[in-house]
Automatic annotation (TrEMBL):
Membrane topology field: Multi-pass membrane protein
InterPro entries: MFS (IPR011701), MFS_trans_sf (IPR036259)
Protein's name according to its UniProt entry: MFS transporter
GO function terms (MF aspect): transmembrane transporter activity
One protein family per Pfam: MFS_1
Keyword Lipid biosynthesis part of the UniProt annotation: no
Length: 421
């Protein structure tokens, strides 16, 4: 007798989603390196790079809360399909601007469009997993997604760095555009009925208030979000903006692409390990693992050889992968499905709202205090911020058995705590 397939891959919906998302990840992994070195080639490129990154992240942050409410209210699969199609069109425009050497300021409206789309896609992506796999398969589904993400980040930056050095960055972005269209096609067979309990007379504002009520009543949740509100601008400024600039004048674009790919090796190692293990203290593990990402910033700032930077970047990748999968799984198991996208949107909003500040201020601060100094101090600040939530007892002590309690209590827990918050 044929053995029945078990796990998330037993779900046809998840298989199609996973295939499309994997293709999109491979394309998107090429864009950061390609775009960075394409912008750095133009006049005043160092200042433009941070501003273009901020132009994408800022509208994403501003629209996140609306995007989370809409993802809970309507069909998440259709939102993802539409977003993939429009993102593919926007990335095509960016690729054309870069390839033909047009005025780089044309990148700003396209970056803004991508940011708006991300505000709708991210909450839908985080909320759709419990709808297409069984609850006991959520952790493994996130491990599958983490493995694909890691593999993409190994291959993508290396190819993108080579393309940037030989052909220019536009071709890597063009591949990303094609991957969005393929992901869009893969989402066509995915049909998931909306499980929203929102009544027709409940407005988006009421939905957001409900999500905010749940979010603010859980200290373990908002304390970690606050930590990421400090870590993310530091990482985006010291690593994403200053990293390529420091690399340009030291080990070059190919070396920077190799570094990012080796970080993905760490992500892949941890993703494979997470198939088999479950942390007894998931939130404690999340923050300890996150703190490792501050080490490469210090190494980069201190000018250590590329081999040492690559080693600690792999270590940071392991930590980031453990952190990301554990955090997503904790949220998906702990938060009622009917408000999962909204609560995740508040988590994303709080975590990302300060990112543009780091991107915009990175170069001015580096010009005043030196690029190595800002990268080094940024790494130290990142590590301290990652460890601060451990002062909260529930973050240190929460076990996997504690998480489903919140999911079962659902709206009743929210209503009972409203007067206490």
């Amino acid at each position: 007798m044929m053995k029945m397939e078990k796990g998330p891959l037993a779900s046809r919906q998840f298989r199609w989603f996973y295939m499309g998302h994997t293709v999109s990840l491979f394309g998107s992994s090429m864009t950061p390196v390609a775009l960075a070195f394409a912008v750095l080639q133009v006049h005043q490129g160092q200042h433009l790079l941070g501003n273009i990154l901020a132009a994408q992240i800022l509208p994403s942050i501003l629209m996140l809360l609306i995007g989370g409410s809409i993802a809970d209210r309507y069909h998440r699969d259709r939102l993802i399909l539409l977003s993939n199609f429009v993102s593919g069109s926007a990335q095509t425009g960016i690729a054309i601007v870069v390839i033909i050497g047009a005025n780089p300021y044309w990148l700003f409206p396209l970056a803004i469009l991508n940011g708006v789309l991300e505000a709708f896609t991210s909450p839908a992506m985080r909320g759709i997993i419990p709808e297409i796999v069984d609850s006991q398969d959520i952790k493994q589904a996130n491990a599958f997604l983490g493995t694909s993400r890691s593999a993409a980040k190994i291959v993508g930056p290396i190819l993108s760095g080579i393309f940037a050095a030989i052909l220019g960055g536009g071709w890597g972005i063009a591949i990303d555009a094609a991957s969005f269209f393929i992901a869009c096609a893969c989402m066509i067979p995915v049909h998931i009925p909306s499980r929203s309990i929102v009544t027709k007379d409940q407005s988006l504002l009421q939905q957001m208030r409900e999500g905010w009520g749940y979010f603010k009543c859980h200290r373990w949740l908002w304390s970690i979000t606050c930590a990421f509100a400090l870590m993310n601008p530091v990482q985006m400024g010291a690593w994403q903006v200053l990293g390529p600039i420091i690399a340009k004048y030291s080990f070059g674009s190919a070396g920077w692409g190799l570094t990012l790919s080796m970080r993905a090796v760490g992500l892949l190692i941890a993703s494979l390990v997470m198939f088999r293990i479950q942390l007894r203290r998931p939130l404690l593990g999340t923050m300890l693992a996150t703190s490792l990402a501050g080490i490469p910033m210090i190494i980069l700032g201190q000018g250590f050889p590329l081999t040492i930077l690559i080693f600690f970047t792999i270590v940071a990748g392991i930590g980031s992968s453990i952190s990301g999968m554990t955090w997503d799984t904790s949220l998906q198991q702990a938060i009622p499905e009917k408000m999962l996208s909204r609560v995740c949107a508040f988590d994303d909003f709080g975590s990302f709202v300060t990112i543009s500040m780091g991107e915009i201020l990175a170069v001015p601060l580096a010009q005043k205090f030196s690029y190595p100094s800002v990268a080094t101090v940024g790494g130290g600040v990142f590590i301290i911020a990652a460890l601060l939530p451990l002062l909260v007892g529930r973050v240190r002590r929460m076990t996997p058995e504690d998480l489903p309690i919140h999911k079962l209590e659902g709206i009743q827990l929210l209503q009972n705590k409203r007067n206490q918050c």
